[in-house]
């Protein structure tokens, strides 16, 4: 009796191919706080902080607002998340009483560089009560450095507020300048030589000092002005001092 094997082989050759597992729609990745933070930072890095909205984040994630609101309360939560993520990248040194000023400068410089990577993101840090553990970790680290240097607790607390506020303001100004550079009406600002020329061309009888010192007024490369202003705060912290006086109550 002839074998059925050839018939089965022919049937197999003419049968439709099995479904490609790769063609099956992949299971959607669940929404998590980390994914929300990643998407938010992507929006800021590519479009600027002004474009950061819940709707824009949901578009990046390919989901709807209800998926986000299962994890966050409002956009303030997103601000807290993204600043916390940036703070998680800050490397904090072991406080050294002999190098506390340099260590403070280094931490502030790291925070500056993180903010500059994401145009306008420092706005998220302003007027924020820090609750994210990574943000608090940086505050704890700065406080430890200043206290190790002998700075009074209240002075240290106020100094941290001043330092972080300046870092935020500096990086926000840089972001606004970059935004203006894209507009043709502001092209003249890009040239320092033209700006010096405009200042020197002012009426000398009304602006004698500006016309004389135009070069100094427009000087500074890279982060030189940032370092200078940071030094005005840090270098005037007096170890062992009594700290700022408490307000009087009338």
Name a few traits of the molecule.
Tetracycline Repressor, domain 2, 2 domains, 12 helices, mainly alpha, single chain, Repressor_TetR_C, Homeodomain-like_sf, 250 residues
Annotated CATH homologous superfamily of the largest domain: Tetracycline Repressor, domain 2
CATH topology of the largest domain: Tetracycline Repressor, domain 2
The CATH architecture designation of the largest domain is Orthogonal Bundle
Largest sheet report: none
Low-confidence stretches: none
Tell me the number of structural domains. 2
Task: Count the E strands.
Answer: 0
Distance between the termini: 117 Å
Q: Could you tell me the mean pLDDT? A: 87
Order of helices and strands: HHHHHHHHHHHH
Which structural class should the secondary elements be placed in? Answer: mainly alpha
Strand fraction = under 5%
Radius of gyration: 28 Å
What's the level 1 CATH class of the largest domain? Mainly Alpha
